[in-house]
Amino acid sequence: MIKNILNLGDAALYCDFGQDVNKKTNSYVIKYFNKIRQLKIESINNITPSYNKLIISFDLKNIKYNELKNLIEKIEIDKEESFQKNTIEIPICCEEPYSLDFPRLEEKLKLSKEQILKKFFDKKYFCYMTGFIAGMPFLGDLEEDMKIERLETPRVKVPKGSIGITEQFANIYTFESPGGWNIIGNTPIEVFDNSKENEPNLINPGDTVIFKEITKDQYLNYE
Amino acid sequence: MSDNYFKVIRSGINSTFQDKGRPNLYHLGIPFSGAMDNRNYLLANKLVDNDSNNPVLEFAYQGPHLKYIGKKISFTITGDVSFKIKSKTSEIDGNCYETYEINNEDEIDILSTNKSVYGYLSLSGKFDVGYQWGSCSTNTKSYIGANNGKKLQNEQIINIFKIKKNFNKRIINYINTKIEKIRVIKGTNFNYFSEKAIDNFFKKEFKVSKLSDRMGMRLQGPQLENIYNYNIKSEGLIRGVIQVPGDGNPIIMLSDHGTIGGYPKIGVIISADYDRLVQLPSGSKIKFQQIDLSDAETLFKMYEMETQNLLNQI
Question: Domains plus CATH for chain A?
Fold first, then answer.
């Protein structure tokens, strides 16, 4: 639940749900997000859920921080209520030239490529949030022995479709973009489609993601 | 091709179609975008009697050189911009905040912005542009919005429709004020920084780096020492947030910023200063001044009133 609300500048509320990053905390964030959207408060111009925060920005012409804070503090959510979730399968090729950060991963994790891939593909992932770039899902959680730091020097261009890991999270680069995550493979499918205005994101917060390994041949002939 | 259009002889450095932007999509990772300098955007539309959400052409530093084909139309340019209006028989230097009529085969050559970054071109008609999520604003990093998400290209055609038949000459006297100090509310990770870093942040000068664009403004100056943690759990961002990565050089989030970030936030630019902040060209010096929330709200109210007064003069 919301532990504390602060102002982020003069036109946003910073709602803090506590230090822990886990599915339970994140489900509260998503429930608040859904609830506030349903209320259609006109002066709100964005609501951004993340692992354990909800940032609500507003139009300072129409409302001030303290007024909106009072409104948000009165909102109650049903902790037990479930929200719609999907399970999505994402094919990935982890062969050359898509697996950019082997052998760095082998060296840092002290595991063989086979072991890393087994651990990676055995897991079901929970989508905590989407963003940074359009449609990028933040997925968790990797096991303790798969945790790795960001690259010391981020790449200027991470290829579109790359799957990266860092700390306990995995993500998918929906566009070519700068980025510092360790690239394990690449998917041929479109994770963000801006021609679908109602649902441009393939993966949404609360969804479960399963990765499926494909060969380079399958990748190149993927339809 | 429609009957009335611009042919782009030179596209300029970063010319994009913009309107008020695209709200309520941060949760999908889609930035707000929209015109960087909101006041000049509003003035551009009002001077040619357009709705306040009509698409305008925004340009940065060097603007486009356009050849017009079609029936008589009026246009205006706002900001602090040098431009020429060329016809077969004459060539004149244009003034910002003044409307001009152009005829078939006339040209508008937007040479450069002066000690500023952005300028705006609006028409007594409508640019024929694509919309996504109710906005034409182009975000070139996510390939969203007008012109297939791309900046203007050399040789391309911009179709124009809904040209107004009657038009009154308009002119206002307005000079964009330069700002010496940018005012900041302290950020949610203010206590991640050493006393010396905070002292430097508010006392020393920072320089706007060349690596600045519609996404962000990178600053160079004293490196801001982080005494707690270089990373935070990734969380939402808004425009105006000042993030400080591990190298100690601040980055200010601008209108096309990534929606989520994992660097500590030392401060947030107040809403009243945003339009003037984005107009600071690379190489400019910035000083920050800390103010509290209620002062920021008052300053915004004043800024809004000034904008309204200008709009009412038209």
Answer: 4-73 (3.30.1360.40), 87-220 (2.40.100.10)
